[in-house]
Amino acid sequence: MTGGRVRLDGREVLAGVDLRVEPGDVLAVMGPNGAGKSTLVKALLGLIPLSGGRTEIYGAAPARFRDWKRVGYVPQRLPMGGGVPSTVREVVASGRVARQSRWRPTSAADRAAVDRALETVGLTDRARDSAHLLSGGQQQRVLIARALAGEPDVFVMDEPTAGVDAASQAALAATLRDLTGDAGRTIVLVTHGLGPMESFVDRALVLEHGHVVHDGAPQTTMGAAG
Ligand SMILES: Nc1ncnc2c1ncn2[C@@H]1O[C@H](COP(=O)(O)OP(=O)(O)OP(=O)(O)O)[C@@H](O)[C@H]1O
Ligand SMILES: [Mg+2]
Fold first, then answer.
1. Which of 31, 55, 91, 117 has the fewest Cβ atoms surrounding its Cβ within 10 A?
2. Domain extents for the chain?
3. Would you say the CB of residue 10 lies under 6 angstroms from ligand 1?
4. DSSP per residue over the chain, as a string?
5. Measured from the CB, is residue 191 less than 6 Å from ligand 1?
6. What is the mean predicted confidence (pLDDT) over 220-224?
């Protein structure tokens, strides 16, 4: 993203952000409530249009980007409202959709990836339950599992551990550490504190009022979980 600007309701929420994420980067996006963190990650993915500047995903403008199986997005909240209730397994399996087509329906590899993702977030025994009946922290883990199931190259996670208990946070941190190790995945995650992720996050971008006020090594004060 170069000079990325976003206006919402006539207010500049992103005020010219330059951000380049390299393959293998593990980047934490931090800053106070309302700083523009969620807006930034949505704009990076083309979910919110820029009012100025430009952004690319693997070299393509978001509107022209086609290879969505390379990207796993964990939104800050489950956009679940109305519609048909889905089971936990169905929501997680939807993370495989970008890998499927009319010509290649659900395969054994898809089912195995969904099983692994459910296991990783500790929801195997809730797989048949209705996702909207789960607690907030459990729903967050469903969203994480959905992204894991897609086996993307880059994870974009908006406060994946907000409202998630300490044990589940530690389990997620261990999973992410594995993804960044030999697997070499790229991770962009919004968080209020690095907590157990401190050991493998190598870069922190701090936003305030839509401006980047820090881009570099995480600072020690960022360690607290939140
Ligand atoms: N759809 C919208 N219309 C108008 N203003 C919006 C909209 N979405 C967000 N905003 C405003 O943009 C600013 C940044 O919001 P954003 O959600 O990006 O913040 P954030 O850094 O993710 O905060 P949090 O830590 O609470 O998640 C806030 O002041 C918010 O009120
Ligand atoms: Mg946010």
1. 55
2. 2-222
3. no
4. -EEEEEEETTEEEEEEE-----TT-EEEEE-STTSSHHHHHHHHTTSS--SEEE--BTTB-TTT---GGGEEEE-SS---SSS---BHHHHHHGGGGGG-BTTB---HHHHHHHHHHHHHTT-GGGTTSBGGGS-HHHHHHHHHHHHHHT--SEEEEESTTTT--HHHHHHHHHHHHHHHTTT--EEEEE-S--GGGTTT--EEEEEETTEEEEEESPPGGG-S--
5. no
6. 69
CATH superfamily of 2-222: P-loop containing nucleotide triphosphate hydrolases (3.40.50.300)
Q: What is the number of the ligand closest to the CA of 75?
A: 2
pTM recorded for the entire structure: 0.93
pLDDT in tens, 6-45: 999 999 999 999 999 999 999 999 999 999 999 999 999 9
pLDDT band at residue 183, thresholds of 50, 70 and 90? Answer: confident
